[in-house]
Design a protein that fits this description.
This protein folds into two domains: about 30 residues, no CATH class; about 130 residues, no CATH class. The two termini are about 30 Å apart. It is about 40% helix and about 20% strand. The protein is α/β, with parallel strands linked by helices. It is globular. It has nine helices and five strands.
Length: about 160
């Protein structure tokens, strides 16, 4: 019985899962990760061949970055870059990316830091589970041309949470 509250074993749309979400809210944050990563891969695939070779995925938090890194290898996605916690220390890559698929940020963020930013998709839950991605920052953006140098941006981008 305790396992139902400690490990996400029950089907997402079951009464057990709904009860587990009440006891452990972190479970709901993992719902939809495979679908999120598939959507990011489809957005990446919509880019031209040359642009795909210099694309990175900028994640807003360690959950989104973890989802990309866990499921993204099945789609040939690059590892996520993220400014949260120890992800920040991994950097942004060399050479720096030219095009970013941005997950977990608002359109306002995209327009503030990039010269070009467009809405490419929205994160939803086929199960109707409300979590941070579906409610707080559901936009997936394609952004280009960082307004400042990568080292300057990356210094300011570090955060804990």
């Amino acid at each position: 019985l305790a396992a139902a509250y400690l490990v996400p074993l029950a089907p997402v749309d079951s009464a057990w899962a709904r009860q587990a979400f009440k006891v452990n809210g972190d479970f709901r944050e993992e719902i939809g990760w495979p679908e999120l990563v598939q959507q990011v891969a489809e957005i990446r695939d919509s880019l031209g061949r040359g642009e795909r070779s210099r694309v990175a995925i900028l994640a807003g938090n360690y959950g989104e970055a973890g989802a990309i890194n866990l499921y993204g290898q099945d789609y040939g996605l690059p590892k996520a870059i993220c400014g949260t916690n120890s992800f920040w220390a991994r950097g942004y890559g060399d050479p720096p990316p030219e095009t970013l698929i941005v997950v977990g940020f608002s359109q306002e963020f995209g327009h503030r830091y990039f010269e070009s930013c467009e809405l490419a998709g929205r994160i939803t839950s086929k199960y109707g589970v409300a979590n941070e991605e579906t409610t707080d920052h559901p936009d997936i953006l394609i952004c280009r041309h960082l307004r400042e140098s990568w080292p300057e941006f990356w210094k300011k981008f570090r955060r804990y949470g």
